[in-house]
Amino acid sequence: MPNSVSDGQMDQIRVERAISEVRSGRPVLIRAGQSLAVAVNVEALDDKLATWLEQRAKRFPRLVLPAPRLRRLGFDRTEPGAFALPHVDLARIETLSLQVGARYDAPVAALTKIDRAALELARVALVLPALVVTPVAARAVADAGLIEVEVSAIGGYRAAQAAELRIMARAPVPLEGAPDTEFVVFRGGEGLRDQVAVIVGKPDFSKTVTVRLHSACLTGDLFGSLKCDCGDQLRHTARFMAENGGGVLLYLDQEGRGNGLSNKIRAYKLQAQGFDTYDADEVLGFGHDQRGFDFAASMLKQLGVVRVRVMTNNPVKIKALETAGLEVDSDQRILGRRTEENVRYLASKRDRAGHMIDVDSLTGGGSVKE
């Protein structure tokens, strides 16, 4: 390792390694002062790992769950909590973490610093927000080869990533309906992912620039899913910008409102069983929206954008850009098609998340509403 690597950079490196371990289904060590615990995402648990944890436990392991999942289990809570695990019972853990209609079977305790750091690590790693956290003595895991990371490093990781957001590559990429287009790729912002600014036409960055913050949607953007309006919004935005003085479309790697693709597909399965989009996410332990847009504002600033006209139906995006110091001159709606498959989804976004959508006025074609 070069001598020029700072302590802060080493912290980020350790968190990045821990993210990789969690996504790969391997346990990690999390330290807070003299306290040390092994954290394992429940997706990775099997009989062998459960036995390994019990043999090394200094105290009872805990099943750490976020507030939305606890509410689904019957608790009236706005904070995450933890169940004691006298035994690492895989059936019980699966029931409490994932089973539809499950109810709590024991009291829930407040989280430790390590528990909270484990939940944040799961969030950044885009895995299910449910973990078994097992207090251990260092000697009990000395030969296990586990990655160790400090609570403070996990807590500061996201802000550090946003601060280090940088341009990696750019090139012209002509699009259908918007042939004069440039793609600018940034690295950072959310975990180890790349983010893209799509500059359509030749917008004058010294004036108000039309922008859209578009979170990636594999099913809608690429495959034309009828369950959402994302693909329509993406394509209509590019065409509108091409025909109206240009603009910047930020294509952000925040699949499933920040929950990740696997969790989005889990939520789709629940929607097929009758849950709306937000209730499905709550069953899995997610709040209404896991996304952050601070790094999106940083992308715009690096491009030289100061004042914006925001194409969105989501008031949270408007507020986020204002909070980040951009001047929001105006906003406008961007509407997709109303289909038999997405009408409940659109109504849920309007009624439960405050999106500015007049569902009843939508037709079978997409449009931009001035």
Cα gyration radius (Å): 22 Å
In total, the number of strands is: 14
Low-confidence stretches: none
The gross shape turns out to be: globular
Structural class: alpha/beta
Label the CATH architecture of the largest domain.
3-Layer(aba) Sandwich
Succession of helices and strands: HEEHEHEHHEEHEEEEHHEHHHHEHEHE
Output the CATH class name of the largest domain. Alpha Beta
Number of domains: 2
Strand content: 15-25%
Adjacency order of strands in the biggest sheet: 7-8-9-11-10-12-13-14
CATH homologous superfamily of the largest domain, by name? Answer: GTP cyclohydrolase II
Fraction of helical residues: 25-40%
Largest beta-sheet details? 8 strands, mixed
Tally of alpha and pi helices: 14
Main traits of this protein?
single chain; 370 residues; alpha/beta; DHBP synthase; Rossmann fold; 2 domains; eight-stranded mixed sheet; six-stranded mixed sheet; 14 helices; 14 strands; globular
